[in-house]
């Protein structure tokens, strides 16, 4: 009787699988993540193509089955991440966990609610994993800096938004009184909609003032709209500059400061204060 060797397939351990799925610091884990990104891209393309009537009529059945194949793969991946994770609840309620769940739900919901399969384009959000996959510390640092700037600007932005809403309310009410239903301003909410469209310089044209004074007010709102566009940009930019200057001062404790006006965020090669012109000296440690 011929001898048959006992062939055993070496399967990776659970710990190794977890490293492949959750990390991206070796060849296997990077390959897993890159394959996953390719599948995400293909699935999004299929959803987009399925929305084109001519393509759907000719290849609808093929696209349908491909979409289900991708959904089953992503479903397996989702539960695999839960099974392999040390903090299962943490993953489920994390940003990526919620996005992963939302990426597969629309296909299952389409069995009961038509058109919901097109919501699977939310899978595009999963491309944010590329920051972790490629390990781009500079991009992550800049994203963190931008997030901090938005947090520090929160109070100013709230005041700005409140001011804009007040302008919209006042202008909408004024236009309702001036123009009235005859010009399409049938209510204050409808007039506020017009004010928002005009203030943001979109100008759909579905509602337009007919009186001279109404047109004058519309012109005024347009000019205000151009003026306020730069406000939130300036607020966030100011915080970004302040954060960068603070990091520079922290990184260079001897950075030059002005004794006359106490301005500290000068360039390292500056000789005179850019505010008052006083000769600069290194900041005392």
Automatic annotation (TrEMBL):
Highest taxon, organism lineage: Bacteria
Chain ranges of the Ion transport domain: 30-246
GO molecular function, one term: voltage-gated potassium channel activity
Keywords per UniProt: Ion channel, Ion transport, Membrane, Potassium, Potassium channel, Potassium transport, Transmembrane, Transmembrane helix, Transport, Voltage-gated channel
Broad class of the protein's primary localization: membrane
Membrane topology summary: Multi-pass membrane protein
Membrane-crossing segments per the record: 31-50, 62-84, 90-114, 159-178, 216-236
GO terms (BP aspect): action potential
Subcellular location: Membrane
Protein name per its UniProtKB record: Ion transporter
Lineage, top ranks: Bacteria, Pseudomonadati, Bacteroidota, Cytophagia, Cytophagales
